[in-house]
Design goal:
Elements lengths: L2 E3 L1 H6 L9 E2 L10 E3 L4 E3 L11 E4 L4 E10 L2 E4 L2 E11 L5 E4 L4 E10 L6 E4 L2 E12 L1 E4 L4 E4 L4 E4 L6 E2 L1 E6 L5 E4 L2 E2 L2 E2 L2 E20 L20 E20 L14 E6 L4 E3 L2 E6 L3 E6 L6 E7 L10 E5 L3 E2 L4 E7 L8 E5 L2 E3 L2 E4 L3 E5 L9 E5 L2 E4 L5 E2 L6 E5 L7 E3 L8 E8 L5 E5 L3 E4 L9 E4 L6 E9 L7 E9 L2 E12 L2 E6 L5 E4 L7 E8 L5 E4 L4 E4 L8 E4 L5 E11 L5 E12 L2 E13 L5 E5 L6 E4 L7 E8 L5 E4 L4 E4 L8 E4 L7 E10 L5 E10 L6 E10 L5 E6 L2 E2 L4 E7 L8 E5 L2 E2 L5 E4 L3 E5 L7 E8 L2 E11 L9 E9 L3 E8 L5 E10 L6 E6 L6 E4 L8 E10 ...
Parallel strand pairs: 1-3, 2-5, 4-6, 5-7, 6-8, 7-9, 8-10, 9-11, 10-12, 11-13, 12-14, 12-15, 13-16, 14-17, 29-37, 39-46, 48-55, 57-64, 66-73
Antiparallel strand pairs: 17-21, 18-21, 19-20, 21-22, 22-26, 22-27, 23-24, 23-27, 25-26, 28-30, 30-34, 31-32, 31-35, 33-34, 35-36, 38-40, 40-44, 41-43, 41-45, 42-44, 45-46, 47-49, 49-53, 50-52, 50-54, 51-53, 54-55, 56-58, 58-62, 59-61, 59-63, 60-62, 63-64, 65-67, 67-71, 68-69, 68-72, 70-71, 72-73, 74-75, ...
Length: 1012
């Protein structure tokens, strides 16, 4: 039977089909052809309405004939015959794809990788042979174990980069001398191309195979003069047939990770492992640095494992020497670092003894360091290291500590840096870890003056702290911060004590840094007649720890003064005892022509603080045009208790060429006045004889007679100028509600403790809601509470300048003055879209998204096995340009792991991710495991399923209670089942493969589910 499908046929039916082509073995005696005329393009794409084929399935005995291009984006199963005059396979779409089957090889003319995203990949467990061309645009082509991708003699590769490469074995047949071919190979997220040029040798057609690995080669024995091997990559280049020799070019991009300190870049060499030892190859061209480069060898006639190393003769193996230990005492089972020279990088070649007792557990080995677990039976004495027949004995004695003695240990103290903070402010915290063993009492932590400690990175800092013990054990992280009270540098001590243990102390140092704050009136716009000077306005400077003059520089047409009498464009202010308190600076404006000065900057400069700016605007108007300027045009909400009157708020009027009276009106419950005594609902203001209103002040106040919010306006108008208005809002509060009479300090950054004085607060801390300029204080940050005062910490989310508010039972009081929040822009973006992908059986790829990381210090990665309740830190990322991490640390095949991330801010904040789960497959190339003897006992139907719903049945009398797990084709966990499920619903999932993993009669089986 032959099936012919022409391009015109697709057009006639509107390009809308769903085809599942299954050519069954029942038709094995007939040839079934799916023929595509030349130039026809059949697209397997979910978003395209031409043709949709999520799964292309050719069973044994069937034949697919092709004269054109197949575009597919999910699964290509080939158990039959694949032939044709022009066979082109194009990989498109998003997500992972798969080519599999039981045929030994698929032969194509062209193969194209053009997936939607960089992390999309195509996996194959069938050999693929390409006759003409491979194009690598986007996505990774993963060749399974014992499988190859073969390029015939005339085949070429187009593209190939860090966003599209081959992972696995890539073979190329070369028939001519002096031919250059680049293998676009890599592994996981590392791009490691290798290029060769054929030369001399036996001139016969030769096949070369190359593969890249993103780890160090496991055997560094007998290194000769080779030292400093790459730990993060190596290549395997083989000559499978033929006799051409080749020059080899190895390239890299990214920082190289060597097994030992690299002495000189000029010492680098390409090294080949011959099965017994490493040999340096003769290099003709070197173009390298620490992040990018390449090396080209001279002609080579032998191939194999290749890496990069240093062959500096100074690094050749010499006398073994012990220079010291990471710590001079320890308990049995504790890991100690032995520092020295000329150790073997092969762990088994080092024999370590503690006072003649051999340490059987060497954790890691380099030529300069051994990490060794102290053996059972060890006693105090000398340490010996024997390497290749040479023995070194330590000069100092290593003390074995009584395992029953109480011990307090501090780790991380050497990493503490000098703390810095302005006086009366808190520094960023730094962390150390504290452990205790065999204790009979908690550990008490005491900090000296100007230092504080806490078990939290952001909260609850005090001068002392208690760490409770659990069965005599303490394992805790504590945070230290610096809160200087003056501008004097301070060195302090943090002490750790417990009843039966020796007191431990660490030294800390703090340096108060400069801090400058500015409290200013509205300087937004000065208006004056040309050639005349405006009225002055002012701002106030407060500064601490200032070690030089402060210079204030005004832009053109603006002037400055410290006394409102003598004006200049450049004003110097001298600190007294490194302090500047409430220094008032006046500003005025004068321009000789009509015009605007917009968004000009007043600069405030000093030697030990960053330059600060104040934006000002000015306008000079014509002498004859009527003009009225009102400042400010917006007033804050008036707040008072019902039945009381607010303080009067001034409004400043400046006018020119005004020849008639100015009428100003408002209405109850607002009043206006020319002074602060005689209030009314309307005023008539007269300009002087020259038609000028110069800094004329009027006052407005709010006198409510009912509880709630009330609105009105003030209008300004006469016959010469358009009406201008100021909108008014007043809020009348319940007299029983909280009121604020004062607070101190008046400014600070997040973390500052503020004392609020007033009435009607709740003595129960959690019943008070404290707000700083719209940012609410969490309950645990309200430190003290009574009816007349509160102590609260400014929250991390606070910013800007605004009132302080206290609410009790939704009734609240608001301060009459503002609190200024300094240096508040330190919040960090959350971690979003954390995802995990199994990469084979031994490692997991984590990927996530973060926003602006300018205020982020590090990302902490935590892992938990089997449950979500046992997270442990496994890594810290300080290179925040990374948004991915590969975990290959002690992972168990077939186990479930959970991950979560924490972003740590530079000022103690943290943001956490969601939790993601992953199942590591038992097979390198995940396939449906055979059910062997249980085949007749487990049934799945329908499979494949078009609606995503599957029925699953175990044929036994008792109700099955076997646990099960559902994962996708990338081994990402979808769902747990506590007992065997009778049905699976994948209707909300994308088309593709899924696996139900069942424990059945002490065995574990994978059942593949196919949703089409």
């Amino acid at each position: 039977m032959t099936t012919m499908i022409h391009q015109d046929f697709w057009k006639s039916v509107g390009y809308f089909f769903f085809i599942f082509l299954r050519l069954n073995s029942v038709q094995a005696q007939q040839e079934v052809q799916f023929t595509i005329q030349s130039g026809t393009n059949i697209i397997f794409d979910k978003t395209n309405t031409q043709l949709r084929v999520p799964i292309f399935y050719v069973n044994q005995g069937g034949t697919l004939s092709l004269n054109g291009t197949i575009h597919f984006e999910n699964v290509f199963l080939m158990n039959g015959t694949f032939k044709g005059s022009k066979k082109v396979i194009s990989v498109i779409g998003s997500g992972d794809k798969l080519i599999f089957g039981n045929v030994p090889e698929i032969k194509v003319d062209e193969f194209i990788m053009q997936s939607d995203a960089l992390n999309d990949q195509l996996s194959t467990n069938i050999n693929i042979s390409v006759k003409e061309k491979i194009t690598l645009n986007t996505g990774k082509l993963v060749v399974g174990n014992n499988v190859y991708l073969f390029l015939e003699e005339n085949a070429i590769i187009s593209g190939g980069s860090a966003k599209s490469f081959v992972e696995g074995k890539l073979s190329k047949k070369i028939a001519t001398n002096n031919t250059t071919f680049s293998f676009p190979i890599g592994k996981n997220n590392t791009w490691g191309p290798l290029t060769l040029t054929t030369c001399n040798g036996t001139t016969s057609t030769t096949t070369f195979t190359a593969e890249f690995f993103d780890q160090g080669f496991e055997d560094f024995s007998n290194p000769n003069t080779i030292k400093a091997f790459l730990k993060d990559r190596y290549w395997n280049l083989s000559r499978d047939s033929g006799g051409f020799n080749a020059k080899i070019k190895i390239s890299w991009s990214g920082k190289l990770d060597f097994s030992d300190d690299l002495q000189h870049w000029s010492d680098l060499a390409v090294a080949r492992y011959n099965g017994e030892a490493w040999q340096p190859l003769d290099v003709s061209t070197v173009n390298v640095n620490n992040n990018e480069g390449f090396m080209i060898t001279r002609e080579e006639d032998k191939f194999g494992i290749l890496t990069i190393g240093s062959e500096n003769p100074e690094n050749a193996l010499g006398n073994v020497l012990i220079t010291g230990f990471s710590h001079s005492s320890g308990e049995v089972g504790e890991i100690v670092r032995i520092d020295g020279k000329n150790f073997s990088v092969i762990k088994s070649e080092n024999v370590v003894k503690f006072n003649n007792v051999i340490a059987s557990d060497i954790i890691s080995a380099t030529q300069s360091q051994l990490n060794v677990k102290i053996p059972i039976g060890a006693s105090s004495g000398k340490v010996e290291v024997t390497t290749q027949g040479q023995t070194a004995i330590s000069e100092q004695t290593f003390t074995i500590v009584n395992s029953n003695a109480p011990i307090i240990s501090i780790n991380g103290a050497s990493n503490l840096k000098t703390f810095t903070a302005p006086p009366s402010f808190a520094s960023t915290s730094q962390e150390i870890s504290v452990t205790g063993t065999n204790l009979i009492a908690p550990i008490k932590v005491n900090a000296s003056s100007d230092f504080e400690v806490s078990t939290l990175p952001t909260d609850e800092f005090n001068s002392e702290l208690t760490l409770p013990s659990n069965n005599g054990q303490v394992n805790s992280t504590i945070y230290i911060r610096y809160t200087p009270q003056d501008a004097v540098q301070n060195n302090g001590i943090i002490s750790f004590s417990s009843n039966n243990a020796s007191i431990q102390q660490i030294n800390v140092s703090g340096n108060p840094v400069a801090s400058l704050s500015i409290s200013k009136e509205s300087l937004t716009k000065f208006v004056t007649v040309k050639n005349q000077t405006s009225a002055s306005r002012s701002f106030i400077i407060n500064a601490v720890n200032i070690d030089s003059l402060i210079t204030i520089e005004a832009p053109s047409n603006f002037e400055l003064s410290s006394d409102n009498q003598t004006y200049t464009r450049l004003l110097n202010i001298s600190p007294i005892n490194q302090l500047i308190r409430n220094q008032q600076v006046y500003v005025r404006y004068k321009r000789n022509t009509v015009g605007l000065d917009l968004n000009k900057s007043i600069l405030i400069k000093g030697r030990n603080f960053d330059t600060q700016t104040i934006t000002v605007n000015g306008e000079a108007v014509d002498n004859n045009a009527p003009n009225l300027t009102i400042s400010p045009l917006e007033l804050p909400t008036f707040l008072t208790l019902n039945g009381t009157t607010t303080q009067a708020t001034p409004i400043i009027l400046n006018g020119f060429n005004i020849n008639t009276s100015l009428l100003i009106k408002t209405s109850a419950p607002f009043e206006i006045a020319e002074d602060t005594l005689n209030f009314t609902d309307s005023l008539l203001i007269e300009p002087n004889n020259e038609g000028i209103l110069l800094n004329k002040r009027i006052y407005v106040r709010f006198y409510p007679s009912a509880i709630g919010t009330q609105n009105d306006r003030i209008s300004f108008y006469n016959s010469e100028i358009p009406e201008q208005i100021i909108l008014l809002e007043g809020n009348s509060l319940d007299p029983s509600a909280p009121t604020i009479t004062d607070f101190t300090p008046k400014s600070g950054r997040p973390g500052t403790l503020v004392t609020i004085v007033g009435n009607n607060f709740s003595p129960i801390k959690s019943q008070n809601k404290v707000i700083f300029n719209g940012a609410t204080v969490l309950d645990n940050l309200i430190k003290e509470a009574s009816k007349n005062y509160l102590v609260a910490e400014v929250p991390m989310s606070a910013s800007g300048t605004g009132a302080v508010q206290v609410l009790v039972n939704d009734n609240g009081g608001v301060s009459n003055s503002n609190f200024s929040i300094e240096n508040a822009n330190t919040t960090i973006a959350p971690i979003r879209n954390l995802a995990s992908t199994a990469q084979g059986r031994h490692q997991v790829l984590l990927e996530w998204e973060m926003g602006d990381v300018v205020n982020t210090k590090k990302v902490v990665i935590e892992r938990s096995k089997a449950t979500e309740n046992n997270f442990q830190k496994i890594y810290e990322l300080t290179d925040l340009t990374n948004s991915s991490f590969v975990d290959n640390m002690n992972l168990e095949i077939g186990a479930i792991y959970y991950y979560r991330l924490f972003a740590k801010g530079i000022n103690k904040e943290s943001a956490s991710s969601s939790i993601t789960g992953i199942l590591l497959p038992r097979d390198e190339f995940v396939t449906s495991a055979p059910l062997t003897s249980q085949n007749n006992n487990i049934k799945v139907y329908p499979n494949p399923s078009s609606n995503g719903k599957f029925n699953i049945q175990i044929n036994q009398k008792n109700s099955p209670k076997y646990p099960a797990i559902l994962v996708d084709s990338r081994a990402r966990l979808i769902r747990h089942f506590d007992k065997f499920p009778n049905e699976i619903d994948l209707s909300n999932c994308t088309s593709g493969w899924y696996y139900l993993i069942i424990r059945y009669n002490q065995e574990k089986f994978h059942i593949r589910l196919i949703k089409i």
